[in-house]
Amino acid sequence: MKPVIALVGRPNVGKSTLFNRMTKSRDAIVADYAGLTRDRHYGQGRQGKHEYIVIDTGGFEPDATSGIFKEMAKQTRQAVAEADVVLFVVDVRLGLSAQDHEIAGFLRRLGKPAMLVGNKAEGMKDGGQLSEFYELGLGEVFPVSAAHGQGIRTMIDMALEKLPWLNQDEDAEPEEDDSVIKLAVAGRPNVGKSTLINTWLGEERLVAFDMAGTTRDAIAVPFEKNGQKFQLIDTAGLRRKGRVFEAIEKFSVVKTLQAIEGANVVLLLLDATQGVTDQDAHIAGFILESGRAVVLAVNKWDALDDYGRQMLERSIELRLSFLKFAPLHFISAKKRQGLGPVWTSMIQAHKSSTCKMPTPVLTRLLLESVQFQTPKKIGPYRPKLRYAHQGGMNPPVIVIHGNSLEHITDAYRRFLEGRFRKEFNLIGTPLRIEFKTSLNPYADKD
User: Options 3.40.50.10190, 3.20.20.70, 3.40.50.300, 3.30.2280.10; which CATH number does 181-353 get?
Assistant: First the structure.
């Protein structure tokens, strides 16, 4: 499971700049839930063999009692609760403040692994400005410059060293059974995930149990249907109560992201009575970015009249147009309606995501596509596509070789994707196409 790092501190100390350094891109923000997590953003980063999730928070005032500062403090506490390690960012140039003492006191009482980061420390050779921060009682102050990228890699290494379970989990990780399909049920709170999961378990009459895990893990439930073994990863949090599972709807962005990344197939559940919200679109975008196979299911379909159904279908087409490849089903988990086709689509999506594509077939299809429609000429360059091969699975990756391929247009990329999807009957999985231009052996010669 990816470790989670939270950035906290008073306003304008450089948390967002540090966030962008740790994620290596401003585009790395993967969840910004309007109205729910104000000034709390989630991104992904990687250093060496370790991947991690970073949470950027707003200015933290632990004792705020009203207004927007109270809401921001609430979101920061949630981020700290979700984190495995906390980076407390202070401004070295402005010096120590009373608010820094309040935040330090909050972190000491919490007892979670924390690291004191002195930002804007460029050009401070003697380190005298850092000495006053030792009175916060959080140990050594680590100087960095988020704006200039100084000390970031070492800071991340030190933060990850505070998590002894990280390397232990990797060393003790058992071999996975490829025959088991990992299925994550994702969606906003109260869309019916609990009802759907309990319906599945009740229909199959399986003895389900909580697998060993920690508080940072999603709960996995093994079960079997029609001879196929599944591992259900529940983002709501399943808890055992006698022989009955009680689903606790507690929305956690981190758990949702981790569950999606750990799955083979994601069932994105929407609420027909609420339409497609910003949260739904953000979760769908992360599923696409993660490359996971996905099936869409609209729950509580029976609660809408004909006009409401038409408007919802139009909303899905507009707001989730980037998931056109995903099967769409309309169900009622409470009344157990429409659940059979969902299972069929999930198995088909998994099969598509692990599809093997022979190189001769890919190359033949590529050349036929070029003959049918030649790539557009850009200035003096006309891309020449020569051959293709498979570069990966889950999601499928097709690597195309040729000349001047950097001039391939997005429209032509979509044209090729459509041809490949049709040939291999790819349903419910993203398809990534990579272009590799052959080097010109005479480029460096006079």
Answer: 3.40.50.300
